[in-house]
Design goal:
Helices cover 48% and strands 13% of the residues. It is of the alpha+beta class. Strands 1-2 form a two-stranded antiparallel ribbon. Bound molecules: zinc ion.
Length: 193
């Protein structure tokens, strides 16, 4: 079985990338984290793109990975639809963040001067999932609040953070397909009349 072509944008906060593993809607929905091996592969790919260190066997924690993903997906969906999400999803994300507190650490050496770094107080999948949960909280309530969007490309359901005022698609290729679809719709309508 070859590796799936994961919907990783490489430009979005990790919480958004995780939510995008639930792709499409209704009968067309694809779960890109449906097996332990795919979870391992997804974290390996995202680690390369995002410079995070995830343990090699995240798939062993498949249940918690998918739970966090479903909750983050539900919160981002609520945000783009302008709804209040279900309380359980909010609490679950809070629980993941609380299981992996981080603290700022000061390093001060002669040549470099004072440098601060975030340090995890946990390790393994707990630390990684906690970081993603914290990322989700910061995204929804921080300076980028209100900028989460769902792609308007045909059949695309990817979330992204609107990084410039005219961005409407997750990726330029979705913009291209969207423009093509509009073009054909216009011409079909013109031909029918
Ligand atoms: Zn798209």
């Amino acid at each position: 079985m070859s590796n799936p072509d994961f919907p990783i944008l490489g430009t979005e906060p990790l919480a958004v990338e995780l939510a995008n593993t639930l792709y499409g809607s209704g009968n067309e929905r694809i779960d890109f984290l449906r097996t332990a091996r795919w979870i391992d592969e997804w974290f390996a790919s995202v680690s390369t793109e995002h410079g995070v260190t995830a343990p090699a066997a995240m798939g062993r924690d498949a249940g918690r990975v998918r739970t966090l993903r479903d909750c983050v997906h539900s919160l981002l969906s609520a945000a783009v639809d302008g709804r209040t999400p279900d309380e359980a999803s909010v609490e679950r994300v809070n629980d993941f963040a609380a299981s992996a507190p981080t603290h700022l650490r000061l390093d001060w050496t002669g040549a470099q001067g004072p440098v601060s770094r975030w340090r995890d107080t946990t390790t393994g999948s707990t630390a990684v999932l906690g970081r993603i949960a914290t990322c989700c909280i910061e995204l929804l309530a921080g300076p980028e609040a209100g900028r989460v969007r769902r792609c308007q490309g045909p059949g695309c359901s990817m979330f992204f953070v609107k990084s410039h005022p005219r961005r409407r698609w997750c990726h330029p290729s979705c913009g291209h397909r969207d423009r093509q679809a509009r073009y054909y719709r216009r011409h079909l309508t013109a031909g029918a009349s």
